[in-house]
C-alpha cells in the first residue's frame, strides 16, 4: 500500500504507531488549553526543530505538506484583524499550525499499514457484535492517501489552466476537478472490487 511516510529514516519511524497517535491526541487537546501566544510560539518553534533535525529533505517535505494551511491562516488573520482581536487570532493560527504540523509529523514517520493496524485494534470490540470494520479501515486509509493525491492533481490542473489561458483560474476549475475526483474514485472502486471488495473474509 502506498504510504505517506517519509523515506528519510528517523528515530520516530521505529516508535509504536499507537503510542504516536495517542500522543498526538493528547497534544492536540493540550493545545486548546494553552492561551499564551508566547508559549504557543515556543511550541511552534519546537515542532519546527523536530522537522529540521532529520535533515533538509525531511524539513522541505514537511513544510511543503503544510502549505495547504495558508488559505485558512489568511482567512483567520484577516477576520481577527477586522474584529480587532489580533492576539486571539495569533493564538488560533499557532494552534492550527501546531496541530496540523504534529499530525503531519506522525504521518511522515508512521507507515499507513501501522495506522490501519491501530484502527483494527481499536475497533476489535465492534467485531464481537458482528459489525464489519473493514470498510472503516479502508475508508481511513483512502482519506489519508487520497487527500494529498487530489491536492496535487488540483495544483496540476491549475498549472495547466495558467499555461493555456491569460485569465486567472477560478470557479471554472470546479467541474473538471470534480470529474477528475470521480474518475479516481471509480478507479479505486474497480481496484477494490478486483481484490474481492469489502467482504467478511477480510475480517480477522
TrEMBL record:
Keywords on record: Membrane, Transmembrane, Transmembrane helix
Key word Magnesium present: no
Membrane topology reported for the UniProt record: Multi-pass membrane protein
Membrane as UniProt keyword: yes
Compartments (UniProt record): Membrane
Sequence intervals crossing the membrane: 20-53, 65-83, 89-108, 129-150
Tree of life domain: Bacteria
Family to which the UniProt record says this protein belongs: Belongs to the CbiQ family.
Protein name, UniProt field: ABC transporter permease
